[in-house]
Automatic annotation (TrEMBL):
<protein>
    <recommendedName>
        <fullName>BED-type domain-containing protein</fullName>
    </recommendedName>
</protein>
Length: 250
């Protein structure tokens, strides 16, 4: 059991929401606790749902004594949008999930349409881009690019790298699916530079020395590697795929 007094926990980690309810500042859920009846329900929520974090959160708020944090409370619509976005994005769900009959039947979240969700997602994207833009301003920035093809769709991720931080600047498909060459990547990078207002003077380039070292190490075995590559290409077809276990080392 926590050594922190229940009253202190309730005051710091909950915001009154009417006469009988309080809103948790960690997860934004509402708990019933009639005034004058103690803090049992509120503390029980912290112990059950935030056992590993609520004491650290309490101390963080205490260190910000004098700030306006204790008086800030999100409105119900904002909380609803936040929870839907958190659920859909973090579990990689389709946007239409929020309108499905079974989802609405088994969730306690308020209803929201796909149109409303998209609108707020684009708004959130602008806010996040604005914050990243401020953090990159005046700093040297390098780009790490990851690209792959899955089910006929080519994806590209552009990661901005500074001395101490990394930021996912872009995760997108290519506009022209028939062109997956260098020109298409350069066009995507141009959009990234414009979006985050990164100037040419901020860019820095790195040689991938480890990659070059591995290529030099494998150069003597190029003939064997080429044969393995050719074999895997043939075994990757649907017709020949059942032969793959036979060609795989135990």
């Amino acid at each position: 059991m926590s050594s922190i007094a229940p009253r202190s926990l309730a005051t710091a980690l909950f915001v009154p929401d009417g006469d009988e309810y309080h809103q948790c500042r960690i997860c934004f859920s509402r708990r019933k606790q009639v005034r004058g009846t103690g803090y049992t329900n509120l503390v029980e929520h912290l112990v059950r749902c935030h056992a590993n974090t609520y004491e650290d959160e309490f101390r963080t708020i205490q260190r910000r004594e004098g700030s306006l944090d204790a008086f800030v409370k999100g409105d119900e619509f904002s909380r609803t949008i936040y929870h839907w976005l958190d659920w859909i994005i973090m579990e990689n769900r389709v946007l239409s999930m929020c309108e499905k009959v079974k989802t609405r039947k088994y969730t306690r979240l308020n209803r929201v349409s796909v149109k409303t969700l998209k609108k707020n997602m684009f708004g959130l994207e602008g806010v996040v881009q604005g914050r990243i833009k401020l953090r990159l301003r005046g700093k040297k920035v390098g780009f790490a690019i990851d690209a792959w093809t899955e089910d006929g769709t080519h994806f590209v991720a552009v990661i901005g790298v500074t001395e101490i931080d990394k930021y996912l600047l872009c995760f997108s498909t290519l506009t022209d699916k028939s062109d997956m060459g260098l020109d298409a990547i350069i066009e995507l990078l141009d959009d990234v530079l414009d979006t985050y207002e990164i100037h040419a003077s901020q860019l820095c380039f790195y040689v991938h020395r480890f990659n070059l070292a591995v290529q030099a190490l494998m150069r003597e075995d190029n003939d064997i590697l080429d044969k393995v590559h050719a074999l895997m290409v043939k075994l990757n077809t649907i017709k020949n795929r059942h032969h793959l276990p036979k060609a795989t080392c135990p």
